[in-house]
């Protein structure tokens, strides 16, 4: 944009700010930066960068020492003379004059006359603990470390720093200590940093808004039982927990804030909500608490990858079967990163050789995942894994690989109660014990207490459990965790990264063997972003890898963009999955990524009372909205390349998404939807459609096709999404959406402009070309050969815009299946549909219907049998295809 356009954009944006348009505020400042860049000459750039910039920092810091901001504030809007400003510290008036003149010239204070000044909004803020702390910490640590970057990098031949105790900070401050111990030695810095942590994310959406806390903390027993709902690991002064309490006062279970001793000691108990318990805990030692949720906000970004892994490993030790870890950190997009994000990233480098993680080529979280796995094996070196499990119902023993979850949820247990009830009971806390009984290691296990409380990852859970022979154990705990109401100090014998030597080569004695991160090149290949080259090239069913927010920068919703590009945090949540429930190959290749960017798709309506997102219910008020709170994703290493935005884009075109699940099996990517997010099993089961494409931007970006590996999608729950209507989902990508899709918006939908329950597919040829094993058949085919295909494309893309009917049963549908594995076609009703006609099947939303081969099928109708064994014709357009009935517990196996 040229200067004129920028001025117009600023005017418009300013109007939006006045009208309270969400996201406008965040957009305004970057626009002003762009404007000054467009008018600044190179010489002015030199002055502003190397003179004004450092001087702002230096004079603000000096003015704090001279109490200038306090004195101006005390004048309560009246002017203060230089003489009065100098008095507080008995400073030279001539010196003070020079300093305040500069501060006025950069608009930090206001010059009211000759030698007379008054406070501004900013200078008043500089007297409050958070902003004051930011200025002190910013000057004394941050900017000094940053100034050191050029010489530091030069001395180290421009290699990316990775040693936490050999960062620019150590050179700048002439210390061998890590940032945190260095700060600890200085009470002013401890307080400044902790206070600043309370405000540094000010203005950004709080995690209590976009994270489904209530849902996650459901069924936590009352705090009188000692149960802990939430531990804020490295939680500073407890401000995040205070916000949780104010938003969700009725949450049951205790809240615990853990941090280093000096931080915990600096919390004034009188100022901390009584519902929050303080606790000293070093997160490099095993987590002493069991809690439903462990929350890490801006913790991992302080650390290099190896230490992130250690932190997560230690947190994982506190995980119970239904625990989760929630990670709230910034995620740097591949393109179009904002100045706040890039500054944070380099800032983390300067302070501790750390980084803000990028979202592609994938997040390093994957690496954490693989580290955990590696560590798990390492921890148990020499220990026999549990030999198996026994089912509490049938007492059958089975191998670890078969897994209890598979046994129960796939209805393979002959003695389990009614499968449906069984299934429900798994969701109920009351039956946790039963679940565990089945899940737990067999009593004859030789290593029952070592590891491997394999759990259903849908509940989140423990992935690593260390036993007596394992790693460090808790050395001391002054009180029992349950009884404690005040501080606890838990220490452990694990070496602290603070103690690492500066030289990596010297550290082996202290340090657990570092686990090598996989080189990114191993998981990233340009081929992943290319279009399908041949219809049989399975690995080409990939969404584009590099869709960054910038790619959508011309779209209409300001909030979606600003949020994506101005450094809002990304919320990720992980629950380790149960490797026993996977095929061996799958396990080797699997990892999780955390693509969740809940707000990259937000739109104004999300926050409009009565219409927008309601954090208490997790729903929006708008019709057609669906909770997206449980996006799931599961991918395999060999062909995963996907970032947030490609997923988001895909989601935006997946209609009727009450929950969106994405998975990539060994050969395909799938995106699945379901209609009942609150029902875990429904999520597993309702894989209805799969969306893939060569490029989101291509003319026909989407296709629906079957996936034989949809089960993998159920194993990991990742992140949370806000609730949003389909329009809201699509809005950020409005201009990217397939024209056909766009044209149909509103049609067949009572003109409300909502896209609901329809998938508008591009031309059939392109779809069938993406179906390597498909053989188009007649829709009425009654062929019962033993084709291995589950589904075959047959239908056409009708002009009326209601195009769900691209699947038809193959010959095997409804017939005998190979190995009883259920190649039949099952569909799920997306809405109620009543038919009076004879031979018609009435659909109730959520009904699962087995499609039966029938010569009369056609013209948009299928013939099928519902759960009550009623048979009849029904319109396909009201249904979505499920993958394998194997996943539906309510439908017993045939024969
Ligand atoms: C960037 S701050 C984030 C604080 C808080 N979670 C927030 O978002 O405002 C990182 C926190 O990690 C804490 N921390 C650093 N090392 C730690 C350790 N070994 N054990 C526990 N906490 C630690 C720091 O004291 C600090 O409070």
From TrEMBL:
Limits of the SH3 domain: 822-884
Compositional bias per record (Polar residues), positions renumbered to this chain: 549-577
Keyword set, alphabetical order: Methyltransferase, S-adenosyl-L-methionine, SH3 domain, Transferase
Methyltransferase among keywords: yes
Region (Disordered): 405-513, 549-628, 735-788
Domain of life per record: Eukaryota
Compositionally biased residues, Basic and acidic residues: 424-435, 739-748
Pfam families xrefs: Dimerisation, Methyltransf_2, SH3_2
Gene Ontology MF term list: O-methyltransferase activity; protein dimerization activity
GO biological process: methylation
InterPro entries: COMT-like, COMT_C, COMT_dimerisation, SAM-dependent_MTases_sf, SH3-like_dom_sf, SH3_domain, WH-like_DNA-bd_sf, WH_DNA-bd_sf
PANTHER family xref list: HYPOTHETICAL O-METHYLTRANSFERASE (EUROFUNG)-RELATED (PTHR43712:SF1), PUTATIVE (AFU_ORTHOLOGUE AFUA_4G14580)-RELATED (PTHR43712)
Name of the protein this chain belongs to: SH3 domain-containing protein
Taxonomic lineage from the root: Eukaryota, Fungi, Dikarya, Ascomycota, Pezizomycotina
């Amino acid at each position: 944009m040229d200067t004129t356009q920028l001025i117009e954009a600023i005017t418009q944006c300013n109007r939006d700010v006045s009208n309270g348009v969400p996201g406008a505020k965040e957009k305004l400042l970057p626009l002003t930066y762009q404007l000054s860049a467009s008018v600044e000459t190179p010489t002015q750039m030199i002055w502003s960068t190397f003179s004004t910039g450092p001087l702002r920092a230096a004079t603000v810091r000096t003015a704090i020492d001279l109490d200038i901001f306090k004195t101006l504030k005390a004048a309560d809007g009246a002017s203060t003379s230089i003489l009065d400003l100098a008095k507080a510290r008995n400073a030279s008036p001539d010196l003070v004059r020079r300093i305040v003149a500069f501060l006025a010239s950069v608009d930090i204070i206001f010059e009211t006359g000759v030698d007379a000044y008054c406070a501004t909004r900013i200078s008043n803020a500089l007297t409050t603990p958070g902003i004051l702390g930011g200025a002190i910490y910013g000057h004394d640590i941050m900017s000094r470390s940053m100034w050191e970057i050029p010489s530091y990098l030069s001395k180290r031949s421009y290699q990316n720093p990775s040693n936490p105790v050999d960062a620019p900070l150590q050179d700048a401050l002439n210390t061998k200590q890590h940032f945190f111990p260095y700060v600890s030695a200085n009470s002013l810095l401890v307080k400044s940093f902790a206070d600043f942590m309370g405000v540094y994310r000010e203005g950004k959406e709080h995690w209590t808004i976009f994270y489904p806390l209530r849902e996650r903390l459901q069924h936590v027993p009352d705090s009188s039982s000692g149960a802990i709902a939430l531990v804020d690991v490295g939680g500073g002064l407890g401000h995040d927990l205070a916000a949780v309490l104010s938003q969700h006062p009725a949450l049951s279970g205790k809240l615990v804030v853990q941090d280093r001793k000096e931080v915990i000691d600096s919390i004034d108990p009188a100022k901390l909500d009584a519902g929050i318990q303080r606790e000293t805990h070093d997160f490099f030692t095993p987590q002493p608490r069991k809690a439903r949720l462990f929350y890490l906000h801006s913790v991992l970004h302080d650390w290099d990858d190896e230490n992130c892994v250690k932190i997560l490993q230690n947190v994982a030790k506190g995980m119970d079967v239904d625990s989760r870890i929630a990670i709230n950190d910034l995620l740097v997009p591949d393109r179009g990163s904002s100045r706040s994000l890039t500054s944070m990233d380099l800032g983390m480098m300067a302070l501790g050789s750390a980084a803000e993680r990028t979202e592609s080529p994938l997040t390093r979280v994957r690496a954490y995942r693989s580290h955990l796995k590696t560590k798990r094996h390492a921890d148990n070196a020499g220990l026999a894994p549990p030999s198996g499990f026994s089912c509490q119902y049938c007492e059958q023993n089975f191998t670890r690989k078969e897994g209890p979850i598979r046994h129960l949820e796939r209805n393979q247990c002959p003695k389990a109660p009614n499968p449906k009830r069984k299934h429900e009971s798994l969701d109920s806390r009351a039956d946790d014990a039963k679940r565990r009984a089945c899940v737990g290691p067999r009593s004859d296990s030789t290593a029952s207490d070592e590891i491997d409380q394999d759990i259903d990852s849908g509940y989140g859970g423990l992935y690593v459990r260390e036993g007596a022979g394992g790693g460090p154990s808790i050395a001391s705990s002054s009180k029992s965790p349950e009884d404690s109401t005040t501080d606890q100090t838990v220490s452990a014998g694990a070496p602290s990264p603070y103690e690492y030597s500066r030289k990596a080569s010297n550290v082996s004695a202290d340090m657990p063997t570092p686990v090598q991160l996989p080189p990114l090149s191993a998981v990233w290949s340009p081929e992943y972003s290319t279009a399908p080259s041949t219809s049989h090239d399975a690995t080409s069913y990939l969404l584009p890898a590099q869709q960054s927010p910038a790619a959508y920068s011309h779209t209409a919703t300001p909030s979606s963009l600003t949020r994506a590009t101005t450094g809002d945090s990304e919320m990720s949540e992980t629950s380790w999955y149960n490797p026993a429930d996977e095929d061996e190959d799958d396990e080797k290749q699997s990892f999780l990524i955390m693509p969740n960017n809940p707000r990259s798709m937000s739109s104004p309506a999300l926050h409009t009372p009565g219409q927008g997102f309601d954090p208490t219910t997790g729903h929006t008020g708008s019709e057609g909205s669906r909770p997206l709170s449980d996006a799931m994703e599961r991918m395999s290493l060999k062909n995963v390349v996907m970032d947030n935005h490609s997923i988001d884009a895909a989601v935006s075109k997946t209609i009727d998404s009450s929950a969106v699940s994405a998975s990539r099996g060994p050969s395909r990517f799938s995106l699945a939807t379901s209609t009942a997010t609150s029902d875990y099993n429904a999520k597993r089961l309702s894989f209805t459609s799969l969306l893939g494409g060569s490029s989101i931007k291509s003319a026909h970006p989407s296709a629906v096709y079957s996936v034989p590996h949809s089960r993998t999608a159920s194993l990991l729950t990742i992140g949370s999404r806000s609730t949003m209507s389909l329009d809201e989902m699509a809005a950020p990508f409005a201009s990217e959406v397939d024209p056909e899709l766009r044209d149909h918006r509103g049609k067949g939908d009572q003109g409300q402009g909502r896209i609901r329950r329809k998938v508008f597919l591009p031309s059939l040829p392109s779809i069938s070309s993406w179906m390597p094993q498909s053989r188009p058949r007649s829709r009425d085919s009654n062929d019962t050969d033993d084709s291995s295909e589950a589904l075959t494309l047959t239908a056409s893309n009708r002009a009326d815009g209601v195009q769900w009917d691209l699947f038809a049963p193959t010959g095997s549908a409804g017939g005998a299946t190979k190995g009883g594995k259920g190649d039949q076609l099952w569909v799920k009703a997306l809405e109620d549909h009543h038919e009076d006609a004879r031979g018609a099947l009435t659909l109730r939303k959520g009904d699962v219907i087995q499609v039966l081969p029938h010569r009369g099928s056609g013209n948009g109708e299928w013939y099928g049998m519902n759960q009550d064994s009623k048979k009849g014709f029904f319109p396909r357009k009201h249904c979505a295809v499920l993958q394998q009935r194997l996943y539906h517990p309510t439908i017993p196996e045939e024969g």
